[in-house]
Design brief:
By secondary structure, the protein is an alpha/beta fold. It is built from 6 helices and 13 strands. The chain binds S-adenosylmethionine. The site of S-adenosylmethionine has 23 residues, from α3 and β2.
Length: 240
Protein backbone atom coordinates (compact mmCIF):
# COMPACT_ATOMS: atom_id res chain seq x y z
CA UNK A 1 0.00 0.00 0.00
CA UNK A 2 1.55 3.39 -0.97
CA UNK A 3 2.13 6.02 1.74
CA UNK A 4 -0.95 8.21 2.35
CA UNK A 5 0.39 11.78 2.59
CA UNK A 6 -3.11 13.18 3.17
CA UNK A 7 -4.49 10.79 5.79
CA UNK A 8 -4.57 13.41 8.56
CA UNK A 9 -6.68 15.81 6.53
CA UNK A 10 -9.09 13.55 4.64
CA UNK A 11 -11.98 14.60 6.93
CA UNK A 12 -11.62 18.29 6.11
CA UNK A 13 -9.93 18.25 2.68
CA UNK A 14 -13.12 18.80 0.61
CA UNK A 15 -14.50 21.56 2.81
CA UNK A 16 -11.19 23.44 2.55
CA UNK A 17 -10.52 23.10 -1.17
CA UNK A 18 -14.12 23.59 -2.29
CA UNK A 19 -14.07 27.04 -0.73
CA UNK A 20 -10.77 27.87 -2.36
CA UNK A 21 -11.09 26.57 -5.86
CA UNK A 22 -13.52 26.78 -8.75
CA UNK A 23 -13.30 23.22 -10.05
CA UNK A 24 -16.01 23.87 -12.66
CA UNK A 25 -13.93 26.66 -14.23
CA UNK A 26 -10.79 24.46 -14.24
CA UNK A 27 -12.78 21.55 -15.77
CA UNK A 28 -14.15 23.84 -18.50
CA UNK A 29 -10.67 25.08 -19.46
CA UNK A 30 -9.12 21.63 -19.23
CA UNK A 31 -11.65 19.82 -21.45
CA UNK A 32 -10.96 22.43 -24.08
CA UNK A 33 -7.36 21.15 -24.11
CA UNK A 34 -8.54 17.50 -24.28
CA UNK A 35 -9.85 18.03 -27.85
CA UNK A 36 -11.27 14.72 -29.06
CA UNK A 37 -9.05 12.60 -26.80
CA UNK A 38 -11.04 9.99 -24.90
CA UNK A 39 -8.82 7.98 -22.54
CA UNK A 40 -7.72 10.27 -19.75
CA UNK A 41 -5.52 9.63 -16.69
CA UNK A 42 -5.71 11.85 -13.58
CA UNK A 43 -2.44 11.58 -11.63
CA UNK A 44 -3.32 12.30 -7.99
CA UNK A 45 -7.13 12.44 -8.33
CA UNK A 46 -7.65 13.04 -4.59
CA UNK A 47 -11.36 13.13 -3.65
CA UNK A 48 -12.40 13.44 -7.31
CA UNK A 49 -13.76 17.01 -7.14
CA UNK A 50 -12.30 18.00 -10.52
CA UNK A 51 -13.28 14.77 -12.28
CA UNK A 52 -16.85 15.16 -10.94
CA UNK A 53 -17.06 18.42 -12.91
CA UNK A 54 -15.31 16.99 -15.99
CA UNK A 55 -17.74 14.08 -16.34
CA UNK A 56 -20.73 16.38 -15.96
CA UNK A 57 -19.44 18.33 -18.96
CA UNK A 58 -18.10 15.33 -20.96
CA UNK A 59 -19.83 12.13 -19.70
CA UNK A 60 -18.48 10.08 -22.62
CA UNK A 61 -14.83 10.39 -21.48
CA UNK A 62 -13.11 7.29 -20.08
CA UNK A 63 -11.32 8.57 -17.00
CA UNK A 64 -8.93 6.66 -14.77
CA UNK A 65 -7.65 8.14 -11.52
CA UNK A 66 -4.64 7.08 -9.47
CA UNK A 67 -3.72 8.28 -6.01
CA UNK A 68 -1.54 7.17 -3.12
CA UNK A 69 -4.18 8.21 -0.54
CA UNK A 70 -6.64 5.41 0.27
CA UNK A 71 -8.59 7.83 2.49
CA UNK A 72 -9.12 10.43 -0.28
CA UNK A 73 -9.81 7.71 -2.87
CA UNK A 74 -12.63 6.37 -0.68
CA UNK A 75 -14.32 9.76 -0.99
CA UNK A 76 -13.62 9.81 -4.76
CA UNK A 77 -15.33 6.41 -5.02
CA UNK A 78 -18.42 7.73 -3.21
CA UNK A 79 -18.52 10.84 -5.37
CA UNK A 80 -17.82 9.23 -8.77
CA UNK A 81 -19.29 5.74 -8.37
CA UNK A 82 -18.47 3.37 -11.21
CA UNK A 83 -18.10 6.07 -13.86
CA UNK A 84 -14.37 6.42 -13.18
CA UNK A 85 -11.76 3.72 -12.79
CA UNK A 86 -9.85 4.32 -9.52
CA UNK A 87 -6.52 2.78 -8.43
CA UNK A 88 -4.54 3.21 -5.24
CA UNK A 89 -1.08 3.44 -6.85
CA UNK A 90 2.01 5.58 -6.61
CA UNK A 91 2.71 7.10 -10.05
CA UNK A 92 6.39 6.22 -9.45
CA UNK A 93 5.38 2.54 -9.82
CA UNK A 94 2.45 3.06 -12.17
CA UNK A 95 1.25 -0.18 -13.72
CA UNK A 96 -2.15 -0.03 -15.37
CA UNK A 97 -3.49 -2.41 -17.93
CA UNK A 98 -4.38 0.45 -20.24
CA UNK A 99 -2.89 3.14 -22.48
CA UNK A 100 -4.04 6.77 -22.44
CA UNK A 101 -4.41 9.66 -24.89
CA UNK A 102 -3.75 12.17 -22.16
CA UNK A 103 -2.61 12.36 -18.54
CA UNK A 104 -2.82 15.39 -16.29
CA UNK A 105 -1.99 16.45 -12.76
CA UNK A 106 -3.96 19.23 -11.06
CA UNK A 107 -2.14 19.71 -7.79
CA UNK A 108 -1.69 15.93 -7.82
CA UNK A 109 1.71 14.22 -7.89
CA UNK A 110 3.14 17.43 -9.35
CA UNK A 111 2.10 21.05 -10.04
CA UNK A 112 3.86 24.13 -11.27
CA UNK A 113 3.99 27.10 -8.91
CA UNK A 114 5.00 30.68 -9.59
CA UNK A 115 7.76 31.84 -7.28
CA UNK A 116 8.21 35.52 -8.13
CA UNK A 117 9.58 35.44 -11.67
CA UNK A 118 10.50 31.76 -11.54
CA UNK A 119 8.35 28.79 -12.49
CA UNK A 120 9.04 25.79 -10.28
CA UNK A 121 7.72 22.26 -10.22
CA UNK A 122 6.33 21.39 -6.78
CA UNK A 123 6.46 17.62 -6.51
CA UNK A 124 4.93 15.40 -3.83
CA UNK A 125 7.59 12.89 -4.89
CA UNK A 126 10.77 14.00 -3.15
CA UNK A 127 13.59 11.89 -4.56
CA UNK A 128 14.99 13.06 -7.91
CA UNK A 129 15.35 9.54 -9.35
CA UNK A 130 11.80 8.77 -8.25
CA UNK A 131 10.51 11.94 -9.98
CA UNK A 132 12.32 10.84 -13.15
CA UNK A 133 10.77 7.39 -12.81
CA UNK A 134 7.29 8.89 -12.35
CA UNK A 135 7.70 10.75 -15.67
CA UNK A 136 8.92 7.55 -17.33
CA UNK A 137 5.91 5.60 -15.97
CA UNK A 138 3.44 8.18 -17.29
CA UNK A 139 5.16 8.30 -20.69
CA UNK A 140 5.00 4.48 -20.83
CA UNK A 141 1.20 4.68 -20.40
CA UNK A 142 0.70 7.29 -23.15
CA UNK A 143 -0.05 6.39 -26.74
CA UNK A 144 2.16 7.91 -29.45
CA UNK A 145 1.49 11.66 -29.57
CA UNK A 146 -0.30 11.38 -26.24
CA UNK A 147 -0.04 14.37 -23.93
CA UNK A 148 0.83 15.16 -20.35
CA UNK A 149 -0.60 18.36 -18.86
CA UNK A 150 0.85 19.70 -15.60
CA UNK A 151 -1.41 22.43 -14.28
CA UNK A 152 -0.17 25.48 -12.36
CA UNK A 153 -1.47 25.99 -8.85
CA UNK A 154 -1.28 28.54 -6.06
CA UNK A 155 -0.34 25.89 -3.46
CA UNK A 156 2.65 28.03 -2.45
CA UNK A 157 0.40 30.67 -0.84
CA UNK A 158 -1.18 30.55 2.62
CA UNK A 159 -4.98 30.56 3.08
CA UNK A 160 -7.41 30.83 5.97
CA UNK A 161 -11.13 30.14 5.73
CA UNK A 162 -13.84 30.44 8.39
CA UNK A 163 -16.51 27.90 7.63
CA UNK A 164 -19.40 28.68 9.97
CA UNK A 165 -18.01 30.65 12.88
CA UNK A 166 -17.00 27.38 14.57
CA UNK A 167 -14.67 25.74 12.09
CA UNK A 168 -11.56 27.30 10.56
CA UNK A 169 -9.33 25.80 7.87
CA UNK A 170 -5.87 27.10 7.32
CA UNK A 171 -2.90 26.39 5.04
CA UNK A 172 0.43 27.88 6.00
CA UNK A 173 3.37 27.66 3.66
CA UNK A 174 7.08 27.89 4.29
CA UNK A 175 10.22 27.07 2.32
CA UNK A 176 13.09 24.95 3.46
CA UNK A 177 16.51 24.37 1.92
CA UNK A 178 18.20 21.06 2.65
CA UNK A 179 21.59 20.22 1.13
CA UNK A 180 21.14 22.78 -1.64
CA UNK A 181 17.66 21.54 -2.59
CA UNK A 182 14.47 23.56 -2.04
CA UNK A 183 11.26 22.26 -0.45
CA UNK A 184 7.80 23.68 0.18
CA UNK A 185 6.34 22.84 3.56
CA UNK A 186 2.53 22.97 3.61
CA UNK A 187 0.77 22.79 6.97
CA UNK A 188 -2.98 22.21 6.80
CA UNK A 189 -4.84 22.79 10.08
CA UNK A 190 -8.49 22.56 11.03
CA UNK A 191 -9.70 24.27 14.24
CA UNK A 192 -13.12 23.86 15.86
CA UNK A 193 -14.05 26.47 18.49
CA UNK A 194 -10.36 27.37 18.76
CA UNK A 195 -9.20 23.78 19.35
CA UNK A 196 -7.03 21.96 16.81
CA UNK A 197 -8.98 18.99 15.37
CA UNK A 198 -6.80 18.10 12.38
CA UNK A 199 -3.26 18.76 11.16
CA UNK A 200 -1.38 17.45 8.15
CA UNK A 201 2.09 18.47 7.01
CA UNK A 202 2.96 17.91 3.35
CA UNK A 203 6.47 18.43 1.98
CA UNK A 204 7.07 19.08 -1.72
CA UNK A 205 10.34 19.16 -3.66
CA UNK A 206 10.90 22.25 -5.79
CA UNK A 207 12.64 21.96 -9.16
CA UNK A 208 13.41 24.54 -11.84
CA UNK A 209 11.28 24.39 -14.96
CA UNK A 210 14.36 23.88 -17.20
CA UNK A 211 15.53 20.92 -15.16
CA UNK A 212 12.03 19.37 -15.23
CA UNK A 213 11.75 19.82 -18.98
CA UNK A 214 15.13 18.09 -19.48
CA UNK A 215 13.84 15.18 -17.39
CA UNK A 216 10.65 15.04 -19.46
CA UNK A 217 12.58 15.13 -22.76
CA UNK A 218 14.64 12.17 -21.46
CA UNK A 219 11.42 10.10 -21.44
CA UNK A 220 10.25 11.37 -24.83
CA UNK A 221 7.93 14.16 -23.63
CA UNK A 222 8.63 17.49 -25.37
CA UNK A 223 7.01 20.80 -24.44
CA UNK A 224 4.42 22.02 -26.95
CA UNK A 225 2.73 24.84 -25.03
CA UNK A 226 2.39 26.47 -21.62
CA UNK A 227 -0.89 28.40 -22.05
CA UNK A 228 0.45 31.51 -20.31
CA UNK A 229 2.06 29.35 -17.63
CA UNK A 230 -1.31 27.89 -16.65
CA UNK A 231 -1.30 24.54 -18.44
CA UNK A 232 2.13 23.11 -19.31
CA UNK A 233 1.58 20.63 -22.13
CA UNK A 234 4.07 17.90 -23.16
CA UNK A 235 3.68 15.52 -26.08
CA UNK A 236 5.05 12.03 -26.57
CA UNK A 237 7.00 11.53 -29.77
CA UNK A 238 5.30 9.23 -32.29
CA UNK A 239 7.20 6.03 -33.23
CA UNK A 240 9.20 6.51 -36.44
C1 LIG B 1 -3.47 18.54 -3.17
S1 LIG B 1 -4.14 16.97 -3.51
C2 LIG B 1 -4.98 17.32 -5.05
C3 LIG B 1 -6.09 16.35 -5.37
C4 LIG B 1 -6.89 16.65 -6.63
N1 LIG B 1 -6.06 16.55 -7.83
C5 LIG B 1 -7.58 17.99 -6.56
O1 LIG B 1 -7.39 18.80 -7.47
O2 LIG B 1 -8.35 18.24 -5.62
C6 LIG B 1 -2.71 16.02 -4.03
C7 LIG B 1 -3.05 14.59 -4.33
O3 LIG B 1 -1.95 13.96 -4.98
C8 LIG B 1 -1.80 12.66 -4.43
N2 LIG B 1 -0.42 12.18 -4.67
C9 LIG B 1 0.71 12.68 -4.11
N3 LIG B 1 1.79 11.99 -4.53
C10 LIG B 1 1.33 11.02 -5.38
C11 LIG B 1 1.97 10.00 -6.12
N4 LIG B 1 3.29 9.83 -6.05
N5 LIG B 1 1.21 9.18 -6.90
C12 LIG B 1 -0.14 9.36 -6.94
N6 LIG B 1 -0.81 10.33 -6.25
C13 LIG B 1 -0.08 11.16 -5.48
C14 LIG B 1 -2.14 12.86 -2.96
O4 LIG B 1 -2.42 11.68 -2.28
C15 LIG B 1 -3.33 13.81 -3.07
O5 LIG B 1 -4.55 13.13 -3.19
Amino acid sequence: MPTDLYQGMSDFYNAFVQRNRDYKAIATELIDLFGDQQDILDVGIGTGLLVEQIIQLRPELQITGVDTSASLLEQAQQCLGTQVDLHCQDVVDLHLDKMFDLAYSRGGAWAFVNDGNTILLASHILDLDAIQQSFERVAAHLRDEGRLIIISSNANHGKREELDGEVTFERTVSKDGIEGEQYLILDYRCHRNGGLVGHQRVRMRLLDLDRVEEMLVAVGLGSISDHHNKYHIYQKKGSE
